[in-house]
Specification:
By secondary structure, the chain is an alpha/beta fold. Helices cover 40% and strands 14% of the residues. The protein is built from 13 helices and nine strands. An eight-stranded parallel beta barrel has the order 1-2-3-4-5-6-8-9, surrounded by five helices. α7 (147-164) links the parallel β3 (120-128) and β4. The radius of gyration is 23 Å and the shape is globular. The structure holds ligand G3I. Residues 87-88, 91, 130-131, 176, 251, 282, 296, 298, 355 line the site of ligand G3I.
Length: 395
Amino acid sequence: MISEITNTMNNLRAYFFKSALLMAIIVCIVGISCTGIQKADLSEPGLKDHFSDVFLIGNALNGTQVFGRDSLALDFTAKHFNSIVAENAMKWGEIHPQPDTFDFTLADSLVAFGMRNDMFIVGHCLVWHSQTPRWVFEDSLGKPLTRDALLQRMKDHIFTVVGRYKGKVKGWDVVNEALEEDGQMRKSRWFAIIGEDYIQKAFEFAREADPDAELYYNDYNIELKDKREGAVKIIKSLQEKGIKVDAVGIQGHWHLDSPSLDVIDESIAEYAALGYKVMITELDVNVLPEPNIVGADIAQHGSYDEKLNPYAESFPDSMQQVLAKRYEDLFRIFVKNDSSITRVTFWGLHDGYSWKNNWPVLGRTNHCLLFDRNYQAKPAYDAVLKTVPIQTETK
Ligand code: G3I
C-alpha cells in the first residue's frame, strides 16, 4: 500500500515538474516574441569577427548583464565583442568603498566571463577624480592626508586591485580624465595633495603591480586641440622619465556632427607619431539636443525639457540614416588608422543601457549605439560593416 502511495507521489511530482518546465519554456518563448528581443544567433559572425584582422571590438558591462538579470546580455556580448571592460565595477567607489573593505564580487564575475570567452579584459579605472570616496583623501579625523600618506593609499589600492587580476586584466586605464577642457591639469584632490606627479606615481605603481599589463592614459575630448596638447604634455613627460604608457584612450563620447572627422584623424596620427597605440575606449554618438554642456565630465547636469528629448517614442528612419552615416564615417577613420588603433570599445551593449539616457539630462531616450533596446542591429550596424577592409589575397 505504502509503495503505491510513494509511486503515486513520485508520478505526481514528475507530472508537476514537467508541467512547470513546459510552462517556463512557453513563458520564455512568449516573453521573447512579445518584446521582440531575440536570443543572439551565435551561428552568424558578430561585429568582432568582421573586424578580427583590424582591431579589438569591446563593450562595457554592468551588474545586470554580468549577473544574468538580463539573460540575453552575455551571449550577445560573446557574439559581438572580444574585449570587455567594467562600466563601473572596478572604480574605486565600487571596488574599495571603505578603507578596509573591498567588494570584488562583480569585478570577479566579469573577469571570469572574459576569461571563459578568451576576451581582452580592460580594467577601468585606477585613479580618477570622480567616483572616489572622500575618505581616500582624508585621515580618520577628516583632515586632508599628507602627500606621502595619500601616495601610500594609492599604492595599496593599485597593488591590491591590479595584483588580484594580474595575468587576467590585460590593460588598465591607470589615470582617467586628469585634464580640464583648456588642457591644464584638473585640480583634483589627487593633484592638490600629491602634486602633478600623481600621474607618474600611478603609472609606476601599476607597472610594478603587473609588469605585463598594458597601461593607458584615458580621457574625453583629447582629440580636441587644447586637451590634445595637455595629453601630449602628460605622456611626453612620462616618456622622458622612462615611464611607459602603452596607449592613449580617446573615450569617443561624440555627437552626430562633432568633433570633425579631420580632428579625430589628426589626433590619432599625432599620438601615433609619438609612438603610442590609440584606443577608442568609450564610443557612443549622442543623437539628442544638448543643453550647454561641454565634454563628458559626469559632474555636470542639465534640467529636463521635452525639447531635449525628441525621440522618446521612436527613432525615425531619417535619423537612423544620419546616425548610420556618422558611424560609417567614424569607422572609416578608425580603419584608415588601423596600424595605430588596437581597440574600439562601445560604451553600452544597446541603447537602453547607455549612460547618455541620463546624462547630462536625467530621464531621456537616447539612441546612440549600434543596437536598439531589443538587441536588434540598427542601420548604423550595417553601415559599420561596410567599412570592414576587403580581405586582400595573402601574397
Ligand atoms: O551602484 C550605485 C547604486 O548602489 C545606487 O543605488 C545607485 C543610485 O544612486 O547609484 C549606483 O551607482 C551609479 C553607478 O553609475 C552604477 O550604476 C552612480 O550613481 C552613477 O553616477 C554611475 O554612473 C556612471 C558614471 O560613469 C559615473 O561613474 C555611468 O554608469 C558610467 O557609464 C560612466 O562612465 C564614465 C566613465 O567611467 C569615464 N568616462 C566618462 C563615462 C561617462 O560619464
